[in-house]
Amino acid sequence: MIGNQCEYMFVVRKNPQLSVNEIISYLKARGIDHYLRNYTNEYFIFEIANFDPKKTIEQIGETLKIGIILGKIETDYIKKAFTIQKKRMNTEMIDEILESSLKLSKEVVKHAYDANSIGVSVYPRNIDDIQFIDFNELGEVVGDVVANKLKEDAGLKRKPSIVTAKNFKYKGSADIRPIDARREKFQNKNLELLIGLGKSFSYIAVTLGICDQDAFNKRGIYRPERPEGWIYGMAPNYAKALVNLSGAKKGDVLLDPFCGIGTILQEAVLNGIKIFGVDINKECVDASRQNLKYISKEYGLGWNNMDKRIIVGDARKLSEYFTEDSFDAIVTEPYLGPALKMRPKHNDAKRIINELKSLYKDTLPEINEIIRPGKRAVIINPSIKSSNGSLSLNLREMAERVNFKFLQSFLDERPHQLVSREINIFYKPNGVVEF
Q1: CATH number, domain containing residue 240
Q2: Is the pTM of the predicted complex or chain greater than 0.90?
Q3: Number of independent structural domains in the chain
Q4: Within this chain, do residues 201 and 296 fall inside the same structural domain, yes or no?
């Protein structure tokens, strides 16, 4: 048990492994006590002490919403009460169970005091939940119980109305999307309930932080600079997650030695991290500088020395540009090979991997030399889907040959992608791995 703790629900994006590791790295780097209580592909439950959800949601990338837990209920009760076949138990009994299990914290009461409506999002654990549970009816009942408790226990002037997913003009989800939640002001004027269905218990939370996808788009597809014909893309929220995986925090110094148009650098800057970038392509460096100046102006950061911090250079010669033990974190996506329009033959994929091998092999010892002992490097490695399975570099073996220690790796794979990202985390040994 953690002192002065609360339980929080984190609603995740597409890759739960990336998301949970980002959250853990972010909390550890800032010395925030935490304990992972429940893991699903849709949400996590963390016990955390002294935590600011609104600040955190702005500094992490692979989380859609953060809510504080009001209570939990046995999932069997939900399945019996809200089956689509309507063979359910007495609604009054469910009301009693919910009323006795839900606790309204002072933070929630303050948050909901002027609420006009309560939105409800339901997150299933598996396909059976989707097929057999009536999400809208579940949302209406839970929402009504919370609305009554707020009116009776918290002294609200009026009972808020209940808004479930069916009342929004989109289809195919039980979730009120972050963009809709922000549009309806559920993070301030109104209230959003999150219902996470679990194997044994289901959790009910109130949203306190919502991802600002418009801001990510502003820093991504609406950035002012990218070279003509630029086909390489990394979403800003993804770049933010990579930065957090490195453990970098405010005041640390981070390098991206394959910085491209600056996506990783901009997300690091917005977390208060000092940045340096290198790229062998001058056109990319110019675009990266302009994009960082744009971010600095838009967010009032006052950065004006991009020409010195982002330079044209070769990642295989980093020790010529920077002194030993210069950086607290290195986060980068090197060249992943040519763009593929169709699944390559096995030998063609093997050839691409072999051509990339020398680039990674020559870069890793340079990274190891300029990063500080105990600090992390997050490096992307391509995994190519060939006609006979996937092929990738053995980055772990390459790194350990130069005494760069492997910490963790996992695959970020999308069904439509021919080249997936393998995320690798290494550290430079000093006897103690920080955090």
Answers
A1: 3.40.50.150
A2: yes
A3: 2
A4: no
